[in-house]
Design brief:
Layout: E1 8-10, H1 25-31, H2 37-52, E2 72-76, H3 83-86, H4 92-105, E3 110-114, H5 117-120, E4 137-140, H6 146-150, E5 155-158, H7 163-169, E6 174-176, E7 189-190, H8 195-202, H9 207-218, E8 219-222, E9 229-230, H10 232-248, E10 252-254, H11 260-270, E11 276-278, E12 288-292, H12 293-307, E13 311-316, E14 333-337, H13 350-357, H14 362-378, E15 400-404, H15 411-416, H16 423-433, E16 438-442, H17 445-448, H18 458-461, E17 467-468, H19 474-478, E18 483-486, H20 491-497, E19 501-504, E20 517-518, H21 531-541, E21 543-546, E22 553-554, H22 556-565, H23 575-590
Parallel strand pairs: 2-3, 2-5, 3-4, 5-6, 6-7, 10-11, 10-12, 12-13, 15-16, 15-18, 16-17, 18-19, 19-20
Antiparallel strand pairs: 1-8, 8-9, 13-14, 14-21, 21-22
Protein name: Capsular polysaccharide export system protein KpsC
Pfam families: Capsule_synth
InterPro entries: Capsule_polysaccharide_synth
């Protein structure tokens, strides 16, 4: 569909699933009920993902935005010449009969005719698009996702369309006027003249049996990222991510005032198959404006308000790259926040709202815990830079505290701190409160690389700290300390993942939920969270992850796998590295 290659195919050794004249391999798989509880559980899970995720055979269409004024039933049209119609023992007359009977059986209902997507695109003709329609019949010319449409109707009439099986998954009564692969098993109301003979050949089967046979045993899948054989769940996960990406960024997106570097990294994150992305400085006709963080928001707020556009903020997410952003290493993940931004504690953000309101399911909690374990085992952090570090002997037997550095112009310091606003003040305070502790100060890697400003310098830091961990991998340091004391650094969150005690002297996104020792409170943050609830929202739901070479959506787990096997960048600020990255980014920004 729309020129995209398929992610699943079938191989049939006996016939083909849409040919009702003879048994196919699929028909035999349905009859061969394995009685496998695990397989049925997978089928049930897959159906839930499809229905709740609004997934289908084709996944390009937006959700249906209409609503019936009364009870509605759906009549599914197909394209002329569709082989499933011919081999499903049906014809053009079957469609006319179907429509007439739907009208007769539902005298008080609206009759909706679903037009095939290929007909809407103008590439094919439908059986019912040219028919003379009754006054109660509404021809749906909006391309809409099946599950969103099915939620609006009480009953579905079809000839042989796969839409009929998607309706069965949604729990809708389905009437068949042809002989599709899912008819004849006792699940559908079969009106075809040969229905009795087909039912005698096929027998009885449950919906789970059909689902497991067709989707788990018959079809073969391609993992979208590895291009190797995959599973149904590989494909469903990928399609759900693509759908989320597409629906979030519908219409025309205006992203002004960005450097070539920022354009190059935002372009694949903001581009979908059916939206338009504009980088112009002049305000175009647009549906939303995307800016880089609070700096971009302040710069473009007036222009956006004048056009009454929503303004969305993008920023680096929390599992970013193998190397520094200031060395022009492209990110694997970004966040797009429509309310605020995670580091601005002065107002709500999408992340804060989710943490305050979302209820974690056991499945989600288990996924978050597995992700945490993979991050810790893989030694993954935001930048994945630096080398191994060993705790000095002088620290042995003492309580070891880490104070992570931040860049001086870090927006999280401006929007997430109160009385203590500098690293110098933080170090002084931590030493005063912990006179006998061994304090490790790790300058921010951007500062160590000479790419960004920072304080204090090494000499002044050692007035309060016992040692510096300048070129160390942050995960190596975290493994050897007892506590982390921070203003707003992401290191505090990374420490929580590793079971460390964290003291917050500002209000980062992970503070105020009962997981950290906080200098201040945030009245908006009203819940006591589990660590897994924080992980799920911050690392799984909130960010967008993009595959580094295929530029397609991926999961947090995919990103962690990539970074856990990537080489560590032990040096920063290399001129050649920055030059190569700059040329690459210039090319991507143009093309």
């Amino acid at each position: 569909m729309l020129g995209y290659p398929p992610l699943s195919l079938v191989i049939d050794y006996d016939g083909i699933y849409y040919d009702a004249s003879q048994p196919s391999t699929l028909e035999k798989l349905i009859q061969d009920k394995p009685g496998n509880a695990a397989l049925e559980a997978e089928a049930r899970k897959a159906m839930r993902l499809i229905v709740e995720g609004d997934l289908a055979k084709y996944n390009h269409a937006p959700p249906f935005d209409g609503a019936p004024t009364a009870r509605a039933v759906l009549v599914v049209d197909q394209t002329m010449g569709d082989v499933s119609v011919t081999f499903g023992n049906a014809s053009a007359a079957s469609f006319r009969l179907m429509l007439d009977i739907a009208c007769a059986e539902n005298p008080d209902a609206e009759i909706w005719v679903k037009t095939h997507p290929d007909v809407l695109q103008g590439s094919k003709r439908g059986y019912l698009t040219q028919a003379t329609l009754h006054a109660r019949v509404r021809l749906l010319t909006q391309d809409a996702s099946p599950q969103s449409l099915l939620r609006c109707v009480a009953r579905v009439y079809t000839v042989t369309s796969h839409f009929g099986f998607e309706a069965l998954m949604a729990g809708k009564p389905v009437v068949c006027f042809g002989q599709p692969w899912y008819a004849g098993w006792g699940l559908t109301d079969d009106r075809h003249p040969g229905a009795q003979a087909l039912a005698a050949r096929r027998g009885k089967a449950s919906l789970l049996t059909l689902m497991s046979a067709a989707y788990l045993r018959y079809a073969r899948y391609l993992d979208p990222h590895t291009q190797q054989p995959g599973t149904l769940f590989d494909v469903l996960t990928y399609l759900a991510l693509c759908r989320r990406h597409q629906l979030t960024l519908r219409g025309t997106i205006w992203a002004p005032g960005l450097s070539l570097w920022k354009r190059s990294i935002l372009k694949p994150f903001l581009t979908t198959s059916d939206n338009r992305l504009r980088f112009t400085r002049r305000v175009p006709e647009a549906d939303a404006c995307v800016v880089w963080g609070t700096t971009g928001e302040a710069r473009w707020q007036a222009a956006v308000q004048a056009r009454q556009l929503p303004i969305w903020r993008m920023e680096d997410a929390f599992v970013r790259s193998a190397g520094l952003g200031s060395d022009l290493h492209a990110p694997l993940s970004l966040v797009l926040d429509k309310r605020g931004i995670y580091y601005d504690a002065s107002r709500p953000s999408d992340l804060e709202i989710a943490l305050n309101t979302a209820n974690l399911t056991p499945t989600q909690a288990a996924r978050a815990e597995r992700l945490r374990q993979r991050i810790v085992k893989g030694g993954v952090s935001k930048y994945n830079a630096g080398g191994a570090w060993r705790l000095p002997r002088a620290a042995w037997g003492r309580r070891v505290l880490l104070v992570p550095g931040q860049v001086s112009n870090d927006a999280s310091l401006a929007y997430g701190t109160q009385t203590l606003r500098t690293l110098t003040a933080l170090l002084r305070t931590v030493r005063a409160r912990n006179p006998d502790a061994y304090i490790v100060f790790k300058p921010h890697p951007d500062v160590s690389a000479g790419n960004r400003p920072g304080e204090p310098d090494d000499k002044n830091a050692l007035r309060w700290a016992d040692c510096l961990a300048t070129q160390a991998d942050i995960t190596s340091v975290l493994d050897q300390v007892d506590e982390v004391h921070t203003l707003t650094s992401l290191t505090g969150f990374e420490a929580l993942l590793r079971g460390k005690t964290v003291y917050c002297y500002g209000m980062p996104f992970y503070a105020g939920w009962g997981l950290t020792h906080d200098e201040y409170t945030c009245p908006r943050r009203t819940r006591q969270l589990t660590l897994n609830a924080l992980i799920y929202q911050a690392l799984i739901e909130y960010p967008f992850y993009l595959h580094p070479t295929r530029k397609t959506p991926m999961t947090a787990e995919d990103a962690v796998q990539i970074l856990s096997t990537a080489p560590r960048h032990r040096g920063h600020g290399k001129t050649l590295t920055r030059l190569v990255n700059k040329v690459r980014n210039f090319f991507h920004a143009l093309f």
